[in-house]
Amino acid sequence: MKILVTGTAGFIGNQLALKLLERGEEVIGIDNLNDYYPVQLKLDRLKRLQDYGRYTDIRLDLADRAGMEQLFRQHQPQRVVNLAAQAGVRYSLQNPHAYIDSNIVGFINVLEGCRHHQVEHLVYASSSSVYGANESMPFSVHDNVDHPLSLYAASKKANELMAHSYSSLYQLPTTGLRFFTVYGPWGRPDMAPFLFTQAILAGKPIDVFNYGNHRRDFTYVDDIVEGVIRTLDHTATANPEWSGLQPDPATSRAPWRVYNIGNQEPVQLLDFIETLERHLGRQVEKNLLPMQPGDVPDTYADVAALVKDVHYKPATSIDEGVRRFVAWYRDYYAI
Asked: Known catalytic residue: 152?
């Protein structure tokens, strides 16, 4: 099968492309290699894909309308996984236009390409941040998510709505995956596991927001990728029982679905830090600070729908996942 994966120099996109290549698929990978974090890490991730003759590497920005139109015309992918986006809740407070360009303009270019070239299934990254001010735990896809706390979250909610319109108008099967906190080897340097590890090894104190009382549904990257692939193979269908009188936010009378994809076992941030300290063999000074604007105190995924539909089952414990991440970090940075 010919599969287009956007964001193949990114953390999840790179691991997904690798797994698809390993199972024999042809992958067209695109990335704009932006400098939101060090580009060298992205280039090193891409090197992992170079040995596969079935991989095509393309430099392209999703917001480049003409470039995206040419990409779909030339390569005619059968299925698409859109993981390219401007990431980061806190950065969206500093550079909001980057989120509109990548997450809104870029996503409409993906939808248009899928529409005009008979793509069988579009799977795209949403985010747990769409739950915003929701306080009912665990977060359920059957709850409304109309109160985002950051522009990043709003852009991901917009993606779900944009996808629904295309599923409804053009019968394009689309599935949105609300990712919860993903970690593991080759992870993002702007995320807490990476930042904490870097500081602990350097003997520097770390900033711990919300006084360490955050709970996060940390999910190991291999478990996430397995769920993405299972979802890609399970083309979205209409819900024949959907009713406009009592609309279910997770399904539709169109071939459109959204799912949570997480570990369903939230961990307190201080406990996660202690696990890092144990595997690094060092302790760290903690600067306990109040919660930052745009952040949420807890994330906790109800993944029952994904388990039911694609038999998703995360299998990596926090202890094992952190051990693998620390081993990779020491090897990659020769520590």
From this structure: yes
